[in-house]
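Every protein is a chain of amino acids, and every chain bends into a shape of its own. Below is the pair of lines this work produces for a single protein:
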Amino acid sequence: MTNMTFPPALPRKQTGTVQTVVALMLREMSSTYGRSSLGYLWAILEPVAGIFLLTFIFSLAFRSPSLGTSFPLFFATGILPFMAYMDISNKMSVALRYSKQLLFYPGVTYTDALIARFLLNAMTSIMIAVTLLPMIIIFYDINVIVDIKAIALGYTLAFALGAGVGTINCFLLSVFPIWERAWAVLNRPMFIVSGVIVLIDTVPLPYRDWMWWNPLIHPVGLVRRGIYSTYDATYVSSAYVLAVSGITLALGLLLLRRYHRDIVNF
């Protein structure tokens, strides 16, 4: 009889966590996108509408964008990483509120709810990017030298920042309801000051130095570096974005670990 070896089974606790996260992801997919795969079409149509609206407006006033010759590609490289950050941070900030009833079960933890929302929205953002960017490049017949590493790093930074901000906001929104409105007000100018519409390189001093402290400037710059081979984006600091992401994530997890039972039972 042939000896057969099998990979070691996952510990029961780890297996349960994986199953819980997958179940939470499927639950949110059903409620957000519907039971039909066509529901994902809306996730693609939203950035498409934003890209072509900006294209129409700016093409009336300018002959060419700040980079390259294609307005749709220029705005796509800014909007897509920006929306990846926004979607993850917004969804994770209300993770406990969304899964509150399920958190009373002993097999479901607050980290499961956070991880599920992070993974689902990160995968959705990747799906949008790999669908939309090649479509624009092919449709407009644009010659580009794509740097996959720069694009991947840019999205990694956007995901990390979204996870950090979303986690700390998950605590703040649960404990201080007024913070939800305050945060919405603070976020309104982010689309303008994150390099989506205007390159930080073209902003005069001292405003350029002030914009550098906005961590979203950096992943947007990296994604554009990955599409435009002549764009150096020397201002990008991955270490700064990772530091902001790590601090907000660690602080958020510590606060949730201490107060998550009070939040759920409130």
